[in-house]
Amino acid sequence: MQAILAAVAAHGVLVTALHALPQHYALPPSTLSPSSSSPARPFHATHVSEALAVSFPGAAISATAPKPLTAVVATRKAVAVLKGSTRVEGVVTLAQEKDGRTTVNVRVIGLTPGPHGFHLHEYGDTTKGCMSTGPHFNPNKKTHGAPGDKIRHAGDLGNIIANADGVAEATIVDSQIPLTGPNAVVGRAFVVHELEDDLGKGGHELSLTTGNAGGRLACGVGVEANVRNVGQIVPEEAP
Ligand SMILES: [Cu+2]
Ligand SMILES: [Zn+2]
């Protein structure tokens, strides 16, 4: 009796998996091509369909049917932990949407209340603190500007604003800071500054290079969270 119940349960799970599969196949073809996955990875899409084709006929299902393979990693993610020589610190989490835009969630503590320039700088080199992270990331050789400007550095993310407790929280959605490719944030540094970024409009001699945002209080290098695993089908975790 128990064996029958187990077989029924396994059957139900597999039917669920089959119903769920088609929407997961709406992935870009490149993410499912054999070349995008090393042979060692066990849950490649073709393997999934073969496994289901073989095991689906009801009579053949045993109680030891494999776990359903329906969870797909869909969003690229990266993270940066900001530290400095002061008590300013923070965390930046990044998620790249399907349409290519990146959502940046920032939380920084220990700031003076008010606006502080926030940028992606070119290098992930922090051997000399935040100073060795180089200038604003600027692959298109533009002048400094606001995030919404046509003419801006790719790394120009504007200001984050600290409250009376010195905490700044912001969500920025931007199309110039992808998580993959030659302009990826991975390996570059996020920097939070002492002063407000004038967004290129302050008339100071530094306005068109740095926004005259003053010293670098804290910085952190973007590192990948799941960047390489997007598009993979993985076993659903047990409830
Ligand atoms: Cu900066
Ligand atoms: Zn800039």
From TrEMBL:
Entries under InterPro entries matching the protein: SOD-like_Cu/Zn_dom_sf, SOD_Cu/Zn_/chaperone, SOD_Cu/Zn_BS, SOD_Cu_Zn_dom
Gene Ontology CC terms, in alphabetical order: chloroplast
Lipoprotein in keyword set: no
Reactions mediated catalytically: 2 superoxide + 2 H(+) = H2O2 + O2
Signal peptide as annotated in the record: 1-20
Pfam family of the protein (one): Sod_Cu
Record-linked CDD domains: Cu-Zn_Superoxide_Dismutase
Span of domain Superoxide dismutase copper/zinc binding: 88-221
Any one GO molecular function term: superoxide dismutase activity
PROSITE patterns recorded: SOD_CU_ZN_1
Record EC number: 1.15.1.1
Enzyme class, UniProt record, top EC level: oxidoreductase
Keywords noted in UniProt: Antioxidant, Copper, Disulfide bond, Metal-binding, Oxidoreductase, Signal, Zinc
Cofactor(s) it depends on: Zn(2+); Cu cation
Described purpose of this protein according to its UniProt entry: Destroys radicals which are normally produced within the cells and which are toxic to biological systems.
Family per similarity comment: Belongs to the Cu-Zn superoxide dismutase family.
Assembly mode: Homotetramer.
Protein name in UniProt: superoxide dismutase
Organism: Colocasia esculenta (Wild taro)
